[in-house]
Amino acid sequence: MSDSTVNTSGDYVNFYQYKGKHSGILGWLLSVDHKRIGLLYLGSMVLFFLVGMTLGFFMRLEMWNPGQDVMGPQTYNALFTLHGIIMIFLVIIPGIPAGFGNFFLPIQIGAEDVSFPRLNLFSWYLYTIGGLLAVASLFLSGGPIDTGWTFYAPYSLRTGTEVIMPLMAAFILGFSSILTGVNFVTTVHRLRAPGMTFFKMPLFIWSLYSTAWIQIIGTPIIGITILLVVVERMFGVGLFDPAMGGDPILFQHLFWIYSHPAVYIMILPAMGVVSEIIPTFARKTIFGYGAIAVSSIAIAFVGTLVWGHHMFTSGMSDESRWVYSFLTFIVALPSGVKIFNWVATMYKGSIKAETPFLYVMAFIFLFSIGGLTGLVLGSLATDVHLHDTYFVVAHFHYVMFGGTIFIFFAALHYWFPKMFGKMYNTKIANIALAIMVVGFNMLYFTFFILGYLGMPRRYYDYLPEFQGMHQFATVGSWVLIAGILLMFINLFLGLKNGKKSGNNPWGGMTLEWTVPSPPPLLNFKKIPTVKYGPYEYEHYDEVTKNVN
Amino acid sequence: MSTNSTTNATHGEEHGHEHVHDLRDDYGSKLGMWLFLFTELILFGGLFLLYMAYRYQYFPEFQLSAKSLKIWMGGLNTIILLTSSLTMVLSIVALQRRKIKASIYWLITTIVFAFGFLVVKYFEWSDKFAHGIFPGGEELALKSQGEKVFYGLYFTMTGLHGLHVIIGMIILGFILVFIVKGKVSPDRFALIENGGLYWHLVDLIWIFLFPLFYLLH
């Protein structure tokens, strides 16, 4: 990168210190700087995550004994619905792209900002409004929504609880997601630094780019579906209500046309982060750059065709069942390509087992379990047995929590020094991770067994023979929460009084490591010219010579 | 594509004002608009999918119900919208040719046409309402399930389209103000072009809705 990229004398103004038109809190709330917006997203997401985690904690408490412990069935239904809405729509879907994507996409492609900075700020406002509406709907007259986060018709049309408000919240969140997607695609096409061809982009950018396309293509469909339920409840139009000639199966189709691709919105950016972390800590070019990049697009493409596997037991034709089952298996191919390439990258690498890398190891372990059990659910015969049991709950927690959230934490640890210029206590961070992995497996692996034995999901009560396992899982949830809290406390202490981290503590090679930590307002003194691919470590000294 | 060919990039650090990212990228803003319009098409695509599924399921009822809609009203609205697309283009071209007054005139005409569309729609809907045909209406409640679904789709789809007409009018209204203020000018017309693209989308969706509801018997 260019010589003037970094001012080494230390008198540069970083984006925290920059005095804009507004100061104090308004300097954040009205800022169009992608870094501040990224941090706004991250801050709100961590808050929502803690809320969602607390809801999960109470659900586990209720499962301590058969029968009613701490809440009645209606409250339990409301809790798992809100747990789902908050975790899916407010944390996992926007988590990595809106938070870390906003912060690092422009820096990694050598741009000053995203293409539409004001639209970017607007997206965050939509996100916040959506989140607040979802939480506010708890306190409306009808009582908290109890449909589950899937809002299945006709129940969602008939329940007396407050459905319209959380649905509007989800609609607004979807709009925010679309605008972020439009912004990212345009940014990647228009604002790459000179010399940065598509195949010289960091893999995180590739994953954000594929994700943005799924956001653009998929989200409008959930938008219209949600809108139809609202219209149906408000005006009595009968498009999904069988009593009025509508078809609830069509609702499921429309819902999953979006919501299945959405799981790739959740996981692709996480995979992108993994593809950043592994080369950095193995100090080696990633194995099969092209294959990883193209597999993101392949996952995005095939992922839009497999929604029917959520409906194997809903009453579809046999032909569509095996077609969806087959397509589902095909998604395993590009996912496998990625896993094998990551492992191959580590082969003969000079590995520094720092915290972010350890998170990635935990991710590969947990995500592989999640992915392989996904095949069990994608197979027709086994799915009929396991459908709507705890096995499904275990599967998607391994994929979404063990996959996306663990990588969200990994990204937090990887980019923490870049975002804040400070370092956390790595020893405590590793201990927190170990506690989390133990708690996670105690909690969710037990679910696999429970589900296999026939424990249905979403029930607040159960047969006495499941009690031992439920109690074991509940203890696991305490261990897991202890680990998560320790992690956040450690990061918070690092933020408050961590020691200075330097500009490139891990020895990364992508562009964000060539600018000071925290970055200055416009990221680069002069837009860099890119000569090498993102992980070509043989050129490490040339690329990063101005740092530290 | 990777260089900002149409931009005049300047770094904010060199001058004091707030704006962080100070480059203008007309091509980029159009690209963003196209992507957004794409999402709008998919939004309506979900409804077209429902229409297709239900038409297949309730074929005779759909034929029967379609005959009750007044073709001449739908036809009149089709003419109004198509003409408004023309006046929209005339407004853009006039601005590019530095005829600002003509541009404003054509833009106002477009907005008036949009309003005219809504007036026709109003009479059409109130005619149906008067006969008790609306979701929850007593007359509709007596009809068969297929007819209920037809009118459900009719009111939902034309209603959502009408909402887009209103949004389009608001957008065009803002652009009108910007032209008067000089923020949209012969040298800076990306915004009016994007507004025009949005208006054409509204027109285009109607061109699909019209045959589906009025002409297919």
Q: What is the tally of helical segments of chain A?
A: 16
Envelope shape of chain A: globular
- Our measurement of the CA-to-CA distance between the termini of chain A, rounded to an integer number of angstroms, reads 15 Å
Total strands of chain B: 0
Uncertain stretches of chain A: 1-9
Sum up the overall morphology of chain B in one term. Answer: elongated
Mean pLDDT figure of chain B: 89
Q: Roughly what percent helix of chain A?
A: 55-70%
Main β-sheet of chain A: number of strands, strand sense, barrel status? none
Q: Which two chains form the greatest contact, residue counts included?
A: A-B, 57 and 50 residues
Provide structural commentary.
The complex is a heterodimer of chains A (548) and B (217). Chain A has 548 residues and is an all-alpha fold. Chain A has 16 helices and no strands. In chain A, helix 2 (34-62) packs antiparallel against helix 15 and helix 3 runs antiparallel to helix 4. Chain B is an all-alpha fold and 217 residues long. Chain B starts with 25 loop residues before the first helix and ends with a helix. Residues 1-20 of chain B have low confidence and may be disordered. At the A-B interface, helix 6, helix 7 and helix 8 of A face helix 1 and helix 6 of B.
